[in-house]
Amino acid sequence: MSLYEERLEADLEAIRSQLGSVASQVEDNLRHSVQAVLELDRKLANETLIKDRAVNQEIRDLDHLCHLFVARHLPSGSHLRFVSAVLRLGVALERVGDYSVAICRIARQIESPLPDAVRNNMEMMGRHAGKALGTALAGFLRGDPDSARVSRGFASQTAGTYPYALEVLITAADSDRRPARDLFGTLLVFRLLQRTAEQALNACEQTLFAVKGKRKKEKRYRILFLDRDHAMLAKLAEVALSESHPNAGKIGSAGLEPGAALDPKLVDFCRRRGIVLTDGDATRAFDEALDVGPHYHVIVGLGVDPAAHFDVPYLTAVLQWDLEEDGITAETAIEDVYRALMDRVRGLMATLGVRD
Question: How far from chain centre, in Å, is Cα 162?
Fold first, then answer.
């Protein structure tokens, strides 16, 4: 190994060592912050608050090492990806440190012990979030992309616990008189633990980027259009989105009270444009559409309010499009309806950041 290679490797090792030190401190602070809430330990909360100042300084030192490495070696390829990923991880770790600080401040304000069900869910979320973050960071330091799979599993467990934890907290609020500060503080702790798991997912993406050069995949969405009878509007909106953004994700449509078949005008319109309707002219019920697997990211109501007909999942957004605002009536030609829906669809995709 040449002298230059020895120097380069020594500088890389210094960055790894500094990142490992910061990661260890952040993980400890997260664990102690949750413990402070569970045990109402104000002393531990204050000690953890103070430790975050050292974490911030360590992250600044890490940034400095990365910038020095770039200035000294003008890296390219894997070395450049590594330094770029470390800088992004520094931001993620600083955010998790801020989450721990917020949790500690909540721990100092909660006045009464948490109900057992709330405690159990918080303890579970804290454990899963901590494992997700720790596994992701350890995998990055080892250059092990396979660790991303394990970390994602823990992050998914954290995300899966959150809606249930929220329901438990609501039940506790209804059945047990407690100070509003305690309830709102507990809710914030749950949210911050979920955000920690999301930062762990970011760390997984940086590992894949640094080791294999893989960029984060573009987001794909599950979107459902809903109208009254699934004869025209919802299916036409599905067609417009599939035509304009074929890689947007899984797109569907349904009706609250579906008829026997699609409107013949819609079938003829699609035939003339060479659009193949995958289900022929069959209609689909809303209940059937909801019973197909994971939640929809977005449900769009056309002339109906979807939220009035089902319990909206925590991760689902519900929209209503009033086509009368676009001058669309029952007598409007289907070509004009299609153009109006296409404009709406493109606006939605621009909001979601989906490319044509």
Answer: 13
Tell me which DSSP letter residue 251 carries: E
- CATH assignment of 3-212, among 3.40.190.290, 1.20.1250.20, 1.20.1410.10, 1.20.58.220: 1.20.58.220
Tell whether the model's pLDDT for residue 269 goes beyond 80. Answer: yes
Average pLDDT over residues 319-346: 93
pLDDT value, residue 356: 67
Q: Are 55 and 26 contacting, i.e. CB atoms less than 8 angstroms apart?
A: yes
Q: Please report, for residues 116, 160, 189, 322, the alpha-carbon distance to residue 166 in angstroms, rounded to integers and kept in the order given.
A: 14, 11, 11, 33
State which H helix or E strand residue 125 sits in: helix 116-142
Q: How far apart are CA 197 and CA 191, in angstroms?
A: 10
Helix or strand holding residue 40 (H, E): none
What whole-number distance in Å separates Cα of residue 211 and Cα of residue 10?
A: 19
CA 349 centroid distance within chain = 17
Q: Is the pLDDT of residue 177 over 90?
A: no
Torsion sign, CA atoms 74, 76, 82, 84? positive
- In terms of CATH architecture, what is 221-352? 3-Layer(aba) Sandwich (3.40)
Task: Specify the pLDDT at position 20.
Answer: 96
For the whole model, what pTM was predicted?
Answer: 0.74
